[in-house]
Amino acid sequence: MARFTAPRFAVALLTLVIAAGTPAALAQQQPDPTWSQEDMTRIVQQVQKKLGGLINYSVFDWITFGVHGKTLVLKGYASRPTLKDDAARAVKDIPGIAKVENEIQVLPLSNFDDRIRAQVYNRIYTQAALRKYNANQGSIARAMGPGGRGFGMMAGGITQNPPIGYHAIHIIVNNGHVTLYGVVLNTMDSNIAYIQANGTSGVFSVDNDIIVQGSTPGSAPR
Question: Fewest beta carbons less than 10 Å away: which of 11, 14, 43, 105?
Answer without folding.
Answer: 105
